[in-house]
Amino acid sequence: PFAISADKTKLAEARKSVERQTLGAYFSNVGMVYYQNQNPERAVFYLGLSTAINPQSIDAQNNLANIYSELKKPQKAIKHYNLALKADPGNTSTLFNLGLVLQESGKATQAINAFLQVVQIDPGFSSAHRMLANLYLQNNRLISALLHLKSLVRIQPMNLQNHLNIASTYRRMGQQKLAIATLEKIQTRFPGNPEIHEGLAEAYFRMKDFQQSIAQYRFLIDQDQTKLRNYIQLGWTYYRLHDLPMASAWTLRGMKKSKGAGQFKALAQMNLGFYSLLQKQYAPAKKWYEKVLSENPPEIAQGMIQDIDEVPIGYSRRADLQFFKGWIYFKSRQPEKSQRSLQTYLQMEKNGPFSEEARSILKILIPESGKIKGILSRNGKSSVEKESPKDMVLVSPGFFIMGSNRSLEDEAPEHRVYLDSYWIDKYEVSAGKFAEFLNTVDNVKGYYLDNKFGTLYYDSRFHPRPGLENYPINNITWKAADAYCKWGKNRLPTEAEWEKAARGTSAQAYPWGNISPSNTLARYFQTWTKEEKHNVMVPVQALAEGQSPYGLHNMAGNVKEWVDDWYDREYYNEQSEYATPSGPMGGEFKVVRGGSWRDLKGFIYSTFRNSGNPNSRMDDYGFRCAKNAAPASGEKKLTSRVVPRNNG
């Protein structure tokens, strides 16, 4: 009798299970009918009933998740995709859809994990490889992106875009030769394809093989004489060869052939103004610049200023460029910047060809006669220069190139940054000066670690060790560096200020240029021994041959230097959009720059980023101070140019 009773119970449970599945399937079908009839709210109601009755229904869970995704309810979509995966963990479609929703929700790391599971289960799932490549590219993880782009080429060898994406990634990595090899390899398969020739032109340009780049752009122009972009790029390539007449001629020809229409018109006019200016053809320069400013938003002036700020060294000291900067700022209604540039021009050429026009603009900007005298600075020195702090160097306002695409990931992407003018110490802070500070404020906060490696010693007061008065202070925390600078009414430099002061505006690798380090240029790769001791370092005024473009000493080697910024390895992904950056809002580690006596030569170049605990006191950590030269403009987002930038 007990066996019969148990069998009846199992039979009843099985019947109920079948009934639940049938009812769940019915509700699922009703929900999908509502969805097909464009009633997603009712569809969600019935699919919700279906999944509540039968949570193991993969179709119902997936369909409900898909509808939530379309309704922009990502959290609910993620919940039901995960429930579907509980029932079928290896379902690649579900994993892929989950990855899409996670990506749209801004959860890039979780999305990458979902897509990685897809390609592990099905290595031929091309859409997942494509999503992984895109996500890695967005996060500047170029090697990882390259792996999945190569997988796409194996899966879809005749898809041209996959090959082009590989070449583009190589270009971003600074591997121009590999980009060229990739493009040349597919030329025979896709002969005459313009995108291949555009990629070759750009890669040759980045290699500074301008003649090969010109050949590619000439080919593109021969194939289609109406594309203004190719004329613009060809003109810019001639500019890089210092052939300004050819740069102007090709750009002007492009304006005529394309009838000057489309999104590139403003860029062509801007370049024609720039080329005219460099050739000292001032009337055409004003004509072209005025056309651009009259037909576009005032923010486009930033592109004109960028071009002037980044001229080759042979042009950079020309006074007329400063006047045109002031004139462009004036025309684009930026009075404070106009005033600064015009003032700089008048300091360079008090009685130059644009002096009267500069003074006339300044009278409009500041009509009070008392203020005019200060602005014109007729005695040859600006008020800023008159107040020159001792042993500090003035870094003028403008753009510079920050970061590198050819080194470590946290240095990329290479990007333009605008900085207001500022003062920065010519030398690292010395042991003698820091001893004065400690004896004034006391060392109760543990600013300095008194041990055999430090350049100070203590005997009721702090003193530099004999002979080390002008050696850099070391063994100090970030807080000590910050407090010292504030004690002197200064501050620590920002990371951007430090890098501009180290490498100037020409994007050179080291403070002294692009040649490799040597013992006459920097102090590096030293070993502390009983005999050598503190002579692993050199005095702060030493190694004049290794000065930066602004005359700063020991910006590579000697001691690493604390700066004001918190360290964020992905900060540069946002940094390209900002001017006068003050760094991330917070973090765990502070940035240290410049390398030290302990480092190999491969770690003392100007874009190398390092970090340290702000409470650490290392024997190769020091610092220098900075201060504003004018009221800071504050961090601000730059308006994007409405036309594409010139490559290079």
Structure report:
By secondary structure, the protein is an alpha+beta fold. Among the domains are: 173 residues, Serine Threonine Protein Phosphatase 5, Tetratricopeptide repeat, CATH 1.25.40; 231 residues, paralog of FGE (formylglycine-generating enzyme). Helices cover 51% and strands 8% of the residues. Helix 13 packs parallel to helix 15.
Identify the CATH architecture of the domain at 398-628.
Alpha-Beta Complex
The residue fraction in helices comes out at 40-55%
Our measurement of the CA-to-CA distance between the termini, rounded to an integer number of angstroms, reads: 90 Å
Rg, alpha carbons = 32 Å
Shape: globular
pLDDT < 50 stretches: 368-386, 632-648
pLDDT average, as an integer?
87
CATH superfamily of the domain at 398-628: paralog of FGE (formylglycine-generating enzyme)
Which terms would index this structure?
8% strand; paralog of FGE (formylglycine-generating enzyme); disordered C terminus; four-stranded mixed beta sheet; globular; 648 residues; 26 helices; Serine Threonine Protein Phosphatase 5, Tetratricopeptide repeat; alpha+beta; three-stranded antiparallel beta sheet
